[in-house]
Amino acid sequence: MENELIITFRPWLPPDMNFLWEMLYCSIHVPEGSARPDRTILDQPKIRHYLEDFGTRSGDDAQVAVTGEGVQIGAAWCRRMSPSDPGYGFVDASIPELGMAVDASMRGRGIGRQLLLDLLDRHPTMSLSVDTDNQRAVGLYESLGFVPLAESGSSCTMIRH
Ligand SMILES: CC(C)(COP(=O)(O)OP(=O)(O)OC[C@H]1O[C@@H](n2cnc3c(N)ncnc32)[C@H](O)[C@@H]1OP(=O)(O)O)[C@@H](O)C(=O)NCCC(=O)NCCS
Predict the structure, then answer these.
(1) Residue range 7-160, CATH number
(2) Fewer Cβ neighbours under 10 Å: the N or C end of the chain?
């Protein structure tokens, strides 16, 4: 008989940082048929600023999904950005910007939804940027109250009040 997969959800801890960087890499949308970018993309200022010195800025927060063995399998995080260094989904300096990803082998089991619900409990207003062809993510965000605010090319900024 297959063992039941036990998944728990908890706030992030400093030892989760490597995993959060990995999830940030996974959260970068790759259009169907395109190759994944090199991992050095994480060094680019426009990507790095989502997690650099995470935990030092007021409002930095993350929720992590772990297996019964303590292996991290997904995360949702948020950070307030500034007008001088905005994220792709920046709205204003008071509204944290969301990022999230679930390990590819664990998607479609409700983990992303639970991570986001947990983070929304602590930060009911958030914004985000999502690729309009990322239908799984767009469906999840819409179902939890995010609405489109602006579109630019293939990206959409969404907000939840
Ligand atoms: C987006 C993501 C975080 C969602 O996590 P997940 O654990 O797969 O999501 P869930 O299983 O909780 O499903 C959430 C919703 O996604 C949609 N969904 C789930 N499986 C799907 C599938 N196979 N096809 C299409 N939509 C699907 C549904 O709307 C689902 O809602 P439901 O609970 O009403 O069925 C995950 O797919 C992921 O890591 N994707 C790559 C990274 C990424 O795109 N991050 C977001 C960047 S903006």
Answers:
(1) 3.40.630.30
(2) N
